[in-house]
């Protein structure tokens, strides 16, 4: 029997692993437990929301197809024809195209294979930065020439799939495994496939995998799976016989599994210890038995648990809204998926009749859902702007601003900038800048009136700074005098001075011409505070990788430097070098997106 910690790791990695898979579904059309993340519209450019849309670094090496590395033939004499040599290796397989943000196929060149394997295993499972998460996803899904060194076990393909699974990237794992050659056999990949079928609620796929496993031996897991399949088929008698045989063979009781099987066969209500130990089969049983999620599901830091429970209609509505919000915030779900859950939630009419007041009194995901549903009831630009303005303000107050900006960005773009709505212009422009919709932001910035008081000037300064981080000269001109005036106002306010100092570090990292004397004005007596610092080896390793153009290494070291720490808690000596390191690697759009993320997390 595995320990709780090992079971949690399996739930985060192997179980979550392939979850968004359509490849494992049988032709009969199984019911999906987890939605497949749709590709974002090609007409939208949203680097802050979807970093994978950023233009990939150019490379001279482009595979003819995912996982096929092509060599250029040597010149030949006339009349002699030489075919292109193609070496196919599962470890080189990738599924991203250039349009989807595939990294150069040379991304691991110059990196020793043991180091590449170690870095893949060390990538953070739950990074706070959506930008670094997306870079890690692209790193793991891009086709690539193999790193230097002899092959090892487990294969790179397995390591990549397991890391994506631990990150909760269910659709990504599915795509990667579908690219693997059918002849490839690996026990860990087989486990991922079975777990995926469970989590997809794909009864045909799961039971086919179980039959194959039973053909090689009567393992405990396969026999429990057999009972599960029998119960799903409506044959409770056979399922109960299989359960008795488990006991007679000396297998220890499994309280969670046993309670869920009882609920499925007899309709009883199971008593579960909690969500953190739920395995793939448990989650499938929970869905099959139409049971709600355990009460602690919203507090578990395991994306593999969030995803199927957020997609289940049996999950309590408040928890489902919270899980959907968390999935979108972490980059695992799209805005459309979160919106779908909001639209499916039953909200009493009285909540929607007075949404601004109701949402003000409810700081939970349900309160935010009230405003989003209320937006659909508004017909005029003025009324819609009022709802959006309130939602953005409450999002900032409750530290979920970036998610709310993404939720309303499309609605903001549908409102034409107008002097009649100049009061809304700063909020609209800021939300569009934060979500990378720079063209729409430009229109609103043109109608912003000159601030008349200190509060207005502070808001205008922050918007200008965000615009510079996001788009540089393409969005806002450089104004040295404005920055100096902001520093002069901030130096008498310790909290604002700290915020501006972080901003200067981010601006400097994106190449802005920061005057060195501005830093001196922000130094305050006793200005010391505990901060989260990475290993001393990480930033020098990032600098070395960036200077040599080793993209895979650089992305991995950047992700490790940020770790799973909140961006607001990371000091400028960490954020600045990571942003500049990504820029040096040629990932300029991603560097700017990270700078904007960090600025917003700091309250800008």
How would you explain this protein's 3D organization?
- The chain is mostly helical.
- The protein folds into 2 domains: 4-71 and 87-304, no CATH class; 450-604, no CATH class.
- The protein is 55% helix and 1% strand.
- The chain contains 29 helices and 2 strands.
- It has helices spanning 4-15, 113-122, 130-141, 156-166, 170-178, 187-199, 203-216, 220-232, 236-248, 255-266, 280-288, 303-311, 317-329, 335-344, 349-353, 355-361, 365-375, 381-397, 401-413, 425-434, 438-445, 454-471, 480-490, 494-509, 517-521, 538-548, 551-562, 572-584, 588-601, and strands spanning 68-70, 86-88.
- A two-stranded antiparallel sheet has the order 1-2.
- Helix 16 (355-361) runs antiparallel to helix 17 and helix 28 packs antiparallel against helix 29.
- It is globular, with a radius of gyration of 26 Å.
- The model is unreliable at 1-87 (pLDDT under 50).
Task: Give the SSE map.
Elements lengths: L3 H12 L52 E3 L15 E3 L24 H10 L7 H12 L14 H11 L3 H9 L8 H13 L3 H14 L3 H13 L3 H13 L6 H12 L13 H9 L14 H9 L5 H13 L5 H10 L4 H5 L1 H7 L3 H11 L5 H17 L3 H13 L11 H10 L3 H8 L8 H18 L8 H11 L3 H16 L7 H5 L16 H11 L2 H12 L9 H13 L3 H14 L3
Antiparallel strand pairs: 1-2
Characteristic terms for this protein:
604 residues; mainly alpha; 2 domains; two-stranded antiparallel ribbon; 29 helices; 2 strands; globular
């Amino acid at each position: 029997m595995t320990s709780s910690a090992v079971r949690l790791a399996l739930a985060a990695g192997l179980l979550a692993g392939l979850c968004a898979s359509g490849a494992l579904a049988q032709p009969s059309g199984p019911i999906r437990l987890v939605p497949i993340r749709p590709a974002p519209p090609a007409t939208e450019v949203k680097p802050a929301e979807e970093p994978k849309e950023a233009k990939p670094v150019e490379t001279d090496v482009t595979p003819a197809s995912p996982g096929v590395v092509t060599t250029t033939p040597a010149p030949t004499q006339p009349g002699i024809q030489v075919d292109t040599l193609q070496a196919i290796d599962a470890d080189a397989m990738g599924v991203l195209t250039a349009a989807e943000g595939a990294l150069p196929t040379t991304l691991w060149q110059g990196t020793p294979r043991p180091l590449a394997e170690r870095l893949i295993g060390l990538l953070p499972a739950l990074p706070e930065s959506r930008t670094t998460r997306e870079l890690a996803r692209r790193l793991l899904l891009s086709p690539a020439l193999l790193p230097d060194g002899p092959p090892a076990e487990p294969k790179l393909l397995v390591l990549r799939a397991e890391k994506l699974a631990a990150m909760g990237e269910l659709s990504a794992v599915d795509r990667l495994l579908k690219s693997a050659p059918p002849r490839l056999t690996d026990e860990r990949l087989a486990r991922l496939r079975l777990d995926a079928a469970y989590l997809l609620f794909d009864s045909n796929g799961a039971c086919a995998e179980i039959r194959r496993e039973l053909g090689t031996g009567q393992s405990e897991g396969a026999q429990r799976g057999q009972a599960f399949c029998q119960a799903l088929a409506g044959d409770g008698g056979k399922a109960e016989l299989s359960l008795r045989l488990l006991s007679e063979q000396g297998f220890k009781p499994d309280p969670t599994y046993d309670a869920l099987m009882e609920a499925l066969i007899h309709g009883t209500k199971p008593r579960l210890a909690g969500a953190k130990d739920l395995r793939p089969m448990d989650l499938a049983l929970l869905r099959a038995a139409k049971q709600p999620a355990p009460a602690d599901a919203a507090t578990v830091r395991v994306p593999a648990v969030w995803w199927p429970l957020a997609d289940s209609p049996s999950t309590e509505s408040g928890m489902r809204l919270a899980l959907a919000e968390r999935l979108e915030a972490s980059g695992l779900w799209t805005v459309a998926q979160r919106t779908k859950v909001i639209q499916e939630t039953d909200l009493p009419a009285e909540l929607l009749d007075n949404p601004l007041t109701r949402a003000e009194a409810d700081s939970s995901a349900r309160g935010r859902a009230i405003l989003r549903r209320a937006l659909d009831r508004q017909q005029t630009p003025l009324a819609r702007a009022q709802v959006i303005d309130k939602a953005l303000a409450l999002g900032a107050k409750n530290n979920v601003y970036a998610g709310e900006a993404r939720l309303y960005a499309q609605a903001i773009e549908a409102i034409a900038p107008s002097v009649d709505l100049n009061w809304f212009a700063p909020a609209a422009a800021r939300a569009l800048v934060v979500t990378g919709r720079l063209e729409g932001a430009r229109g609103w910035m043109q109608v912003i009136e000159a601030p008349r008081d200190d509060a207005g000037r502070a808001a205008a300064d922050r918007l200008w700074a965000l615009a510079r981080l996001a788009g540089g000269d393409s969005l806002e001109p450089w104004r040295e005098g404005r920055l100096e005036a902001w520093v002069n106002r901030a130096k008498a306010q310790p909290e604002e001075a700290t915020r501006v100092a972080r901003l200067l570090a981010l601006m400097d990292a994106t190449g802005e011409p920061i005057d060195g004397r501005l830093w001196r004005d922000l130094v305050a007596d006793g200005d010391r505070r505990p901060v989260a610092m990475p290993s001393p080896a990480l930033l020098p390793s990032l600098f070395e990788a960036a200077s040599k153009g080793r993209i895979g290494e650089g992305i991995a070291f950047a992700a490790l430097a940020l770790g799973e720490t909140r961006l607001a808690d990371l000091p400028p000596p960490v954020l600045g070098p990571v942003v500049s390191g990504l820029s040096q690697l040629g990932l300029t759009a991603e560097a700017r997106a990270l700078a904007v993320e960090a600025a917003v997390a700091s309250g800008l």
